[in-house]
Structures are given as structure tokens and as C-alpha cells.
């Protein structure tokens, strides 16, 4: 199967139905043994210092791993993607633009997905057959999420890792499913973690994966990963069709539905506080204003840039935030219904 790179989550069902192997370039970039070389490659080719490290990492990884075809989300994700796609096209890479319409109207979402299906020469029936197959894997991710939140057996990092991986199903649906099944069996044999503070993680998946282990050393457990969970489409499993699934997806649209979902998860998961991660030079940093205005919960905003580990200043801020949550924590820790 021919590989095709992705700048973020797209209707991967269409690509799989067309016989492609999807590759989320974010995952390929950040899991590289030396992720900095991809950033450095982009800067050598002229990308400015004041551009998000993810965009530069995607560019460098495309060249390093020989990606010859890309799907870029030019509306609903990074504001720099359009320029990135033009630069990649100048390098001889075939590019396809996809948009999550800002209007968030179902008919416009359907129109965009149908246009993608026409571009890749697939039918709605074949796409729905793939969606049915992927939903069996997404149910496993939902179970992992439950084992994190309800049972306290899965770590916040595991919750992050296996949900974010469903953006491209690691390029192989069958092996992704087998790995998840194995992981669930292993986690199921564990004893619940005894952590006092229940945290939510909001914002794009972090460059600094050590965040999860760090908070666990301070009597805290991340029991909700906002965007990673959206990548796994837990509500999309029950959607009527692919159009509804990608319409009921909070990440690429305005913050209204996103905030409603966050409020719901705060209540159901009994969260004590939220860590809101943003990336340097990203417009989404401004959204921290809206989250703090509309969510009645303590929120700490931390910012990442090029490093894939927490710096000393961020660790101090996290420690102070967790100390405060420990002092404020009330209630008996019981949770609401799981939906």
C-alpha cells in the first residue's frame, strides 16, 4: 500500500478505502530518536524561528522518510498548514487540501468529505465498510479510557499514547488492534493507582511526554486527555455515518462545542483541575482566555516549544499547581455516569 502523510486527523476511512497507508507526520516526528534534526532541517531550509515546532517537524520528517504524498488540513487546524503544503509541493510532493468548515454546518462537512471521496475515487459504501472496521478498534480505545478514568489502572501517558495513535492506526489497523488488545489485557491485571488529584489535560498533544509521569510523582493522575480522546472518536462509534462522525468532533471547529464537552467531562470524571497545554507561536494559545472564562475549574496553562521534556520552570509551576489542588480538593471522589 502506498503511504500518504497527514498533518493531523482527517477522514482516514477515505484513505484506507482508497488503498493508502496513512502516516500521521506528527507521530512520526515526535517519536523519532532525534526529533530535533527534523526541526533543524526545516530551519536550514528557511523556516523561521517563530514558527511552531510541529510544523517544522512535519516538514523535516516528510523529507527524511521519503513521503511523496500529503493530506493537509488547511481549515480547522494549524494556520501555517497552507504555507507548509505549498513548500512541500515545491519539493515535488503531491498535496491534497482538506477543510473542516468553520461554519460547522453538517451539509458543508458532508460536502467536504464527499469531495475527498471523489478525489481518491472511493464510494460511500466502501468508506462506511472501513469505518465499521475502525470502530472495532476505537471501542478498544474507549475501554482503555474507561480503565484510566473509572478503574485507575491505565496511566495518563498510556491513555495519551494509544488514543493519539488512532489518528493513523499506526499505519496498520490489524496490528494496531492486536496491540491494543494486548495492552488492555496487561492493564486489566494491575491494581488501581492510589492518586489523590484527578487531572484533565486540554489542548494539543504535548511535545513533553514526560508530563504524565511527572504529575504522577506528585499524587496526581491525568484521567482525561481532551484532544487525544477526540482523535479516537468515542462518540463517532454511534454516529449514523461518516458525515455525522466528523461533524461531532470538537477539535477543528469553534470553541463552543469544545467547551460544552469539557464541562461534561469535568463533571463525569470528577476533575480537580486542568492542565492546558499550548505550543509556542500557535494561535491556540489565545484560547486559554476562553477556557478560563467558561470553565469553573482551576486551569494551569503551560507552553511547549522545541524540547520534548519539561523544563525546570514548568516543573516548578506544575508542583505549585498540584499543591494548590491538593489543598482545595473536596468531595468523596465518586464519579458521574460514563457515556
From TrEMBL:
Belongs to the FldB/FldC dehydratase alpha/beta subunit family. The keyword Kinase does not apply. It comes from Anaerotalea alkaliphila. Pfam families: HGD-D (PF06050). Signal peptide: none annotated. This is 2-hydroxyacyl-CoA dehydratase. Keywords: Iron, Iron-sulfur, Metal-binding. The keyword Iron-sulfur applies. GO terms for molecular function: hydro-lyase activity; iron-sulfur cluster binding. Coiled coil: none annotated. Its cofactor is [4Fe-4S] cluster.
